[in-house]
Amino acid sequence: MSNTATDYPFIKIQEADFDLTEENARLRAGHKDIGAVVSFVGTVRDINEGDQVSILELEHYPGMTEKALEKIRLEAHDRWSLEASVIIHRVGKMYPTDQIVLVAVASRHRENAFHAAHFIMDYLKTNAPFWKKETLPNGEVRWVDSRVSDKEAEQRWAQ
Amino acid sequence: MVNILYFASFREMLGQADEQLPAEHKTVSELIAELASRGDNWKQALQDNTNLQIAVNHDVASRETTIKSGDEIAFFPPVTGG
């Protein structure tokens, strides 16, 4: 039932930060047929729902998270012609301006990489079991509500 | 026995992260009804919650899913990653 990191080499759930340059190099390593790399980096805002945010804490469901992300990644590879892709999502405590998530996609031509990166992020938002909890400067702690706009963003990819 | 997990606001609302119960051959809906009888917070989080998310063995499931011995059932609110 439980899976290990090697089951999903292109999915990483980690507390540590990531280096965009290193990850792009890793993605492209061994490929000479790549003509386009699209990388999306999600970062922590210091404002949400009109309030200042001091700390953002990410919780996830170990085991299901990796499986759900791999499913989304493979779906992207089914829909578009891609050479490589990677998804990194951080968990634990983060602070404004920190990087949270990386989706990087490589393909021969840019169109496929743009679409696939957009698709993976939209699906990740509504299908991967992560939950955000934010701490405001006054010490108030609250769970972040899901957004209708994220569900609508996912719908645009319905076939 | 089956393993039941509660995540995020559910874990805090219900005061526990996981538990084991004999729930084989029940549907998820029947399990929820049993859990809901524990009190208002359980009823509110699981039974009356139209946004309830359910996973069985790491896959999205529904209230109609039948539970097998050794299954891992997870209950959680809508996800907010990214």
Explain the overall architecture.
The complex is a heterodimer of chains A (159) and B (82). Chain A is of the alpha+beta class. Chain A has helices at 20-28, 64-79, 110-127, 148-155, and strands at 11-14, 36-43, 47-48, 51-52, 55-60, 84-90, 92-94, 99-107, 130-135, 141-143. Chain A has a single domain (13-154), classed as Molybdopterin biosynthesis MoaE subunit (Aldehyde Oxidoreductase, domain 3, Alpha-Beta Complex), CATH 3.90.1170.40. Chain A is 32% helix and 31% strand. In chain A, helix 2 (64-79) runs antiparallel to helix 3 (110-127). The radius of gyration of chain A is 16 Å and the shape is globular. Chain B has a single domain (2-76), classed as Ubiquitin-like (UB roll) (Roll). Chain B contains three helices and five strands, in the order E-H-E-H-H-E-E-E. In chain B, helix 2 packs antiparallel against helix 3 (40-47). The longest helix of chain B is centred in the middle third of the chain and has 9 residues, at 28-36. The mean pLDDT of chain B is 96. Chain A binds chain B through residues 1, 42, 58-61, 63-64, 67-68, 89, 100-101, 121, 124-133, 143-147, 150, and chain B through 5, 7-9, 51, 53, 55, 57-60, 72, 74, 76-82.
